[in-house]
């Protein structure tokens, strides 16, 4: 097994490695393998660092199911919203240079960005964006354009002009991924550099993260050979998903990296290794939570691209990331300079459970409790629902075919319905029309159907279309029942 090979590799463990460490790592490996099987995630890359040393850097499963290509430390993954910490660090760098201030109004850097709440224009600061207290709603993710154009970031931010804020800035927390796209555009305007080039030059290169890319457009053909295939769950199996390109959402969720490079990021963030390019003060600032609003959960607040949580007097810093076909989780324990990263090639919340479980095992606790992924559970339910819908649809089609045959053979004839039947038919038609029109808008938090098709399990869209088809079949059946009747034999 790869884990045994790593245990034997010279120089892989720091000088304090011991038999106890080896036992923990084998327990961690077994835990991950079990969780991976339950989650149905094809491939994982897991990294554990402590005090500036890489303790575990291991691939599990497959980067490509079809070709049976295994995950290695060089396999590339999109990391989703754990990208936000890179964007936040760039903002703090620029503030350190005196080029901006987090307390400034966004309009100082994007003059045309003027947003309103209840008809009144509101000041939004960079801190509001960093802490998700801007008043921009979560549902704004549904308007991010699918494009790989060079001006995609500005186009994405301009979608905010279409809708009002849903709360006063600074009044409360609501996670909205597009907050960090606005910060990305500010970085561009202040630095006079494209966002991706700024992050590459001033964050990735100083950390020697040479195999990390700020968006898929930075990958050439040789890089793409190391890219994991992305999947999403569908009818209880991982299905390949070629996700649309959201280049305007890169600052919020589309950094691409691997196990080797994410270990360098963990060491910096956990405090195990300093870099002359980063003032420790700005790292501490990025880990400082906004306690001016209600907590996300007891003793849990949002900082700058991180969630800071106090558990029994111990501070943990973490963030999860989910893209349509990738997911990730990073958790830090700064007091002991421990950092853990889990990268996955399927949209799932299991990386969070795995990361938390690895941390608990490393702390000599039991692994994470049983975890339930919403998409996985929802997909199981919809798989059963689809079987029922298909049966109903087949029954309806058979009923329509039988009645058509009867009409053709003159055993059943068209007739004018009574007034009562006409009223019932009209009400039923209105009900079917309302369901057909409103269901996409009401599904999954009010997100539009194209977004649901990209993000949700395959079974969601199939169920939606199947259910609408059955409603139409039911309407046709109703037409036959109301407007035809059997011909009585003399």
From TrEMBL:
Annotated Gene Ontology cellular component terms: membrane
Keywords assigned: Hydrolase, Membrane, Transmembrane, Transmembrane helix
Keyword Hydrolase annotated: yes
MF (Gene Ontology): hydrolase activity
Domain Beta-lactamase-related: 38-349
Stretches that traverse the bilayer: 381-402, 423-442, 454-481
Localisation per UniProt entry: Membrane
The UniProt record lists the keyword Membrane: yes
Domain of life: Bacteria
SUPFAM superfamilies in alphabetical order: beta-lactamase/transpeptidase-like
The protein, known as: Serine hydrolase
């Amino acid at each position: 097994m790869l884990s045994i090979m790593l245990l034997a590799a010279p120089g892989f463990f720091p000088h304090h490695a011991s038999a106890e460490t080896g036992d923990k790592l084998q327990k961690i490996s077994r835990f991950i393998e079990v969780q991976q099987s339950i989650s149905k995630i094809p491939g994982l890359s897991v990294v554990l660092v402590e005090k500036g040393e890489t303790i575990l850097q291991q691939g599990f499963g497959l980067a490509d199911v079809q070709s049976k290509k295994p995950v290695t430390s060089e396999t590339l993954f999109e990391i989703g919203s754990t990208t936000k910490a890179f964007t936040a660090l760039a903002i703090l760098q620029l503030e350190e240079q005196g080029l901006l201030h987090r307390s400034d109004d966004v309009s100082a850097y994007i003059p045309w960005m003027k947003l309103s709440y209840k008809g009144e224009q509101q000041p939004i600061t960079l801190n509001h964006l960093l802490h998700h207290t801007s008043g921009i709603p979560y549902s704004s993710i549904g308007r991010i354009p699918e494009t790989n154009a060079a001006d995609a970031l500005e186009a994405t931010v301009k979608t905010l002009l279409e809708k009002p804020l849903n709360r006063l800035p600074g009044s409360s927390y609501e996670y909205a991924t597009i907050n960090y796209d606005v910060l990305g555009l500010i970085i561009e305007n202040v630095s006079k550099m494209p966002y991706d080039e700024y992050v590459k030059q001033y964050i990735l290169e100083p950390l020697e993260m040479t195999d990390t890319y700020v968006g898929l457009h930075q990958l050439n053909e040789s890089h793409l050979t190391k890219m994991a295939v992305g999947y999403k769950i569908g009818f209880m199996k991982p299905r390949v998903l070629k996700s649309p390109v959201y280049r305007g959402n890169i600052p919020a969720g589309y950094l691409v990296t691997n196990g080797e490079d994410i270990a360098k990021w963990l060491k910096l963030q956990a405090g195990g290794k300093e870099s002359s390019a980063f003032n420790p003060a700005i790292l501490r600032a990025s880990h400082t939570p906004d306690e001016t609003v209600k907590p996300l959960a007891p003793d849990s607040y949002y900082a700058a691209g991180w969630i800071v949580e106090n558990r029994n007097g111990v501070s943990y810093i973490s963030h999860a990331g989910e893209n349509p076909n990738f997911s990730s989780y990073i958790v830090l324990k700064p007091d002991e300079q421990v950092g853990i990263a889990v990268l996955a090639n399927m949209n799932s919340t299991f990386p969070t459970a795995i990361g938390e479980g690895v941390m608990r095992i490393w702390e000599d606790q039991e692994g994470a409790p049983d975890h339930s992924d919403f998409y996985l559970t929802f997909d199981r339910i919809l798989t059963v629902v689809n079987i029922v819908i298909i049966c109903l649809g087949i029954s309806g089609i058979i009923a329509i075919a039988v009645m058509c045959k009867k009409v053709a053979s003159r055993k059943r004839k068209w007739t004018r319905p009574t007034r009562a039947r006409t009223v019932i038919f009209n009400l039923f038609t209105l009900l079917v029309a309302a369901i057909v029109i409103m269901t996409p808008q009401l599904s999954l938090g009010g997100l539009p159907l194209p977004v649901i098709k990209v993000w949700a399990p395959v079974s969601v869209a199939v169920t939606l279309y199947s259910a609408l088809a059955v409603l139409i079949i039911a309407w046709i059946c109703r037409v036959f029942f109301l407007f035809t009747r059997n011909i009585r034999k003399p």
